[in-house]
Structures are given as structure tokens and as C-alpha cells.
Amino acid sequence: MTRDIISVQYPVIDETQSVCSAVVEQTAVTAANGITIEKAVANKNNTLMICIENTADSDTTVTLTAGDAYPNAMLGDLEVEVSASSLYAIQLQDISRFENKDGSVNIDFDSDFTGNIFAIAKSVDLNV
């Protein structure tokens, strides 16, 4: 399967050093391809938030696939139900379950899924 690749988006800290903000760019999901979030774990203190928008009028399932790194990948894939016409935010609590050796995370979608995805996190860079 050739996966579509998205990058983590990083909000930029303002001049007051009080808040970070960003205009989020969503990617339309092609269910048959699945998604790879490149460099998914290269963020500050595991702040990655995966946001999945289900634009259909029916519930669907997305699958966070087990990574290829040891040890927690042996726990396997994890299915997450996404309600109809909703925007879901998923934060990985056990990153090692889903992390691939290259730092990416893969997500598969039901064949009838329609919607969008984006990932956002706090950068590890200083003052960004």
C-alpha cells in the first residue's frame, strides 16, 4: 500500500511568549491509501495531537497501526471509533506502541471513510 504522507504542523509562539498559534492545513484522506504521519514523535513532551474529521453521516473506525519498534508494538493495532460528522482529537499516550523505527505513525481507515486529517504539536525548537 502506498500511504499518503502528512507532516506535523507546529504553531509559532507570539512576541509575548504567551501563546502559540497556527493556521491549520487539513489533508483530505484517501481511505484506500491510509496515512503516514512523518516524524510524528519529534515534538516536545509528546504533545502530538492527531485530528481526524469524519465528514460522513455515519460512524466509522480508524486504526492506529502497531509500529515496527519494540517493545509495545507487540500490543498490536488499536481501532478508534469516530462518530458521524465529528472532529476527533487523538493523543498517543503509549507512543512506543505505534512508533515506527523512522519516527512515523501509520493510520488506516475504513473503506467508506470520508474526511480530513491533520497533526499538530509543540516544537522542540526554542522560541518557535
User: Which strand-content bin applies to the residues?
Assistant: 35-45%
Oligomer: single chain
Q: How many strand elements?
A: 11
Instruction: Give the structural class.
Output: mainly beta
Low-confidence stretches: none
Distance between the termini: 35 Å
SSE ordering: EEEEEEEEEHEE
Largest sheet: 9 strands, mixed
Mean pLDDT: 93
SS field, number of helical segments: 1
Helical content (DSSP H or I, runs of 4+): under 10%
Overall radius of gyration:
15 Å
User: What would you call the shape?
Assistant: globular
Sum this structure up briefly.
By secondary structure, the protein is mostly beta strands.
Description of the structure:
The chain has one helix and eleven strands, in the order E-E-E-E-E-E-E-E-E-H-E-E. By secondary structure, the chain is mainly β. The strands form two sheets. Strands 1, 4, 5, 6, 7, 8, 9, 10 and 11 form a nine-stranded mixed β-sheet that branches. The model has no long low-confidence stretch (mean pLDDT 93).
Feature tags:
128 residues; mainly beta; nine-stranded mixed beta sheet; two-stranded antiparallel ribbon; 1 helix; 11 strands; 38% strand; globular
Helices and strands, with pairings:
Layout: E1 4-9, E2 12-13, E3 20-21, E4 27-28, E5 35-38, E6 49-54, E7 60-64, E8 78-82, E9 86-90, H1 95-98, E10 105-109, E11 115-120
